[in-house]
Automatic annotation (TrEMBL), chain A:
Residues 20-440 form the DUF112 domain. It comes from the Bacteria. InterPro entries: DUF112_TM. It comes from Nonomuraea jiangxiensis. PANTHER family: TRICARBOXYLIC TRANSPORT PROTEIN. This is Putative tricarboxylic transport membrane protein. The keyword Transmembrane helix applies. Keywords: Membrane, Transmembrane, Transmembrane helix. It holds the Pfam family TctA.
From TrEMBL, chain B:
It comes from Nonomuraea jiangxiensis. Keywords: Membrane, Transmembrane, Transmembrane helix. The chain crosses the membrane at residues 42-60, 93-121, 127-145. The keyword Transmembrane helix applies. Residues 11-153 form the DUF1468 domain. This is Putative tricarboxylic transport membrane protein. Pfam families: TctB (PF07331).
């Protein structure tokens, strides 16, 4: 087993004291931002991007991976203990999890979420070890036209899946693509869309865009319609569960992993769909007492979706590492981190930097174990974090956003750009435009352009080169289908609305 | 106010206008006599053109009454009316902070930013908020400037801390 040997080498790299410390910092920070409303892993990794100038790549990615996984763990704590809808991927967990907490079973809900996340994360990382080399050996023959088609598929899939309204998803994507265009064209050195402002020649920094859209946008949105009542946090002790709970959790964990991993790996798959499918599956499969409990706090309804949620995070890393294709906002920021080191994820990365890739994958196993230790006994601590008064929380988020952005170049111009992007982020939230397509468009757009120009240069200007390889044709066909799905969904919804309005 | 006007139309028009601006702005780019393949103008034209089409569809969708659900978040009451006063105050405080940062220095500027935002967002004990603000300003300065070597403006307190 070649990849097993490489993985063992990876453990060697990840198990140094310094890297273990980076992993610990990563998972702790990740859990914290996952628990706190208003910030998530994408923005946290973005704020930490500047450390790439001083920290060696392996350590930075070990920390970033810890933040990614930790964010998934933390989100479940919030949705179980707080009875308000949060990010959509943990909303499903809240359905049963919060009901369990209200019936005095918060400790069991947290335990099945944490242990399920551990089981799913470990299994899914194992699947990543198996799947990544297979995808690499398939993708090694990809030409630029295939990569261009892949980017197009990612664009349309992420825009159509994340929003009920495809035009809003595409508008978000377009905004990101335009931001990505600003600056000097890498191939000819021509300035594009800089409005003659010299600061824009280098383009708009990923950090400013991500922090503006996520942090400042969220703060303005919260200011506009703050829930003034203090959210109710269900009190909880150490997370634990009994033998009956274990028996009821095992299969949902496995099924959730099986659903989450492949969906995470698909462009536009994300975490929302598999968590929902897992919930639906568990509800249908429930027998006896569990069937009665669904809707009132069934442990299966927490175990399955939480496992699916975490497995999808590992799945997301497959296309990111093997193809350089981000399928979520956090993955897009991770891709930006690779670019800051001058690295391009893809088959070549596995060839040239095996120590980095396999060290990062090994650190996922380590981080998962740390997260389990961090989450079971420390549940009461995380519950306390949830009680931070909101005025201070959001004032602090804006403060750190301003700090991170100012520290980039030491200029207040960036702070004004940050505010404008924050306004955009606010408007997008207010009108239901998903933010992820904008982030993915901004980071993947310039790469799509390079591949397109490379492909057309090879074809000497002949456009048919774009559909010469069967892989590219298949990917473009899928991209087209992705654009059509919401149309059908919209039609179906409209028919239902007219039917129900007639019935009234 | 006529029935077709809704605030979302503003965002839709921004998308449309941005598409037009990208196309117009790209016309300025002198395309280096393209050897083989494409110059620097092709992709922006593609994006700009697509933005115009998407923007038009978006405007039509909004005028015809289409809408999506506002994003849900733990601390947001989706059904509440927009509190423009808070949005305006948060914006004003942030912009004032950005404008005055180099004069006030990080510690004073950040403390005022934190205090202003927490009061606007409903902090009840003003005195406690003030105390936390000062701690935040000083702590971030010490941590990032002295600890991590980030450069932040010292302002009038340069040399004192």
């Amino acid at each position: 087993m070649d990849s097993l040997q490489l993985l063992l080498d990876g453990f060697g790299a990840a198990l140094t004291p310094v890297n273990l410390l980076y992993a610990l910092v990563g998972v702790t920070l990740g859990t914290l931002v996952g628990v706190l409303p208003g910030i998530g892993p994408a923005m946290t990794v973005a704020l930490l991007l500047p450390i790439t100038f001083t920290v060696p790549p392996a350590s930075a990615f070990i920390m970033f991976a810890g933040i990614y996984y930790g964010g998934m763990y933390g989100g479940s704590t919030t949705s179980i203990l707080l009875n308000t809808p949060g990010e959509s991927s943990s909303m499903i967990t809240a359905l049963e999890g919060n009901k369990m907490a209200r019936r005095g079973r918060a400790a069991q809900a947290l335990a099945t979420a944490a242990i399920g996340s551990f089981v799913a994360g470990t299994l899914a990382t194992g699947l990543l070890v198996v799947a990544a080399p297979a995808v690499v050996s398939f993708a090694i023959a990809f030409g630029p036209e295939d990569y261009f088609a892949l980017a197009i598929l990612a664009f349309t899939a992420v825009s159509s899946v994340l929003s009920r309204s495809i035009v809003r998803g595409l508008a978000s994507l377009g905004l990101g693509l335009v931001i990505g265009l600003v600056g000097i064209d890498q191939q000819t050195g021509q300035a594009r869309l800089t409005l003659g402002i010299p600061q824009l020649l280098d383009g708009i920094d990923v950090v400013i865009v991500a922090v503006g859209l996520f942090a400042v946008g969220e703060a303005l949105y919260v200011a506009s319609r703050l829930r003034h009542a203090m959210p109710e946090v269900v009190p909880v002790g150490r997370a634990w569960m009994g033998r009956a709970d274990w028996r009821r959790s095992w299969w949902p964990w496995i099924r959730g992993t099986a659903l989450g991993f492949p969906f995470g790996a698909l462009p536009g798959g994300g975490a929302e769909i598999p968590t929902f499918l897992s919930y639906a599956a568990e509800k249908r499969l429930a027998r006896g007492a569990a069937r009665e409990e669904f809707g009132k706090g069934a442990i299966e309804g927490v175990a399955g979706p939480e496992a699916a949620n975490n497995a999808s995070a590992a799945g997301t890393l497959v296309p990111l590492l093997t193809l350089g294709l981000p399928t979520s906002a956090t993955a897009a920021i991770l891709l930006a981190a690779f670019q800051q080191y001058g690295l391009q994820p893809g088959p070549q990365l596995f060839d040239h930097n095996p120590a980095l890739v396999w060290g990062m994958i090994a650190s996922l196993f380590i981080g998962n174990t740390m997260l389990l230790v961090l989450n079971l006994p420390l549940a009461p601590l995380w519950a306390r974090v949830l009680r931070i008064p909101r005025p201070y929380l959001y004032a602090g988020i804006v403060l750190f956003a301003a700090l991170g952005v100012y520290a980039l170049n030491g200029t207040v111009v960036d702070l004004f750009v940050l505010y404008v992007l924050g306004l955009l982020g606010y408007a997008m939230r207010r009108f239901g435009l998903p933010v992820a397509p904008a982030v993915i468009g901004m980071i993947l757009g310039p790469m799509a352009e390079i591949q397109l120009r490379r492909a057309l240069a090879i074809g000497a200007g002949d456009v048919s080169v774009l559909v010469r390889s069967p892989v590219a044709v298949a990917l473009l066909a899928l991209a087209f289908l992705a654009l059509l799905t919401p149309l059908f969904r919209g039609l179906a919804a409209r028919r239902r609305v007219t039917a129900s309005s007639r019935a009234e | 106010m006529s029935r077709w006007w809704r605030p979302e139309l503003g965002l839709a028009v921004v998308v449309l206008v941005l598409g037009v601006l990208v196309v117009v702005g790209t016309l300025d780019v002198s395309a280096a006599a393209s050897q083989l393949g494409l110059g620097p103008r092709f992709f922006p034209m593609l994006v700009g053109g697509a933005m115009v089409v998407v923007g038009l569809c978006y405007v039509i969708d909004v005028v015809r009454g289409g809408r999506a659900d506002p994003e849900e978040s733990e601390d947001v009451d989706v059904d509440a009316p927009t509190d423009w006063r808070s949005v305006g105050l948060v914006s004003g405080i942030f912009l004032a902070f950005a404008a005055l940062l180099n004069v006030l220095g990080w510690i004073v500027g950040a403390a005022l930013l934190f205090f202003g935002l927490s009061v606007v967002l409903g902090a009840e004990h003003k005195l406690r908020a003030a105390g936390i603000s000062v701690v935040m300003g000083v702590a971030t300065y010490l941590l990032f400037v002295k600890g991590l070597g980030v450069s932040l403006p010292g302002g009038p307190l340069t040399g004192v801390i």
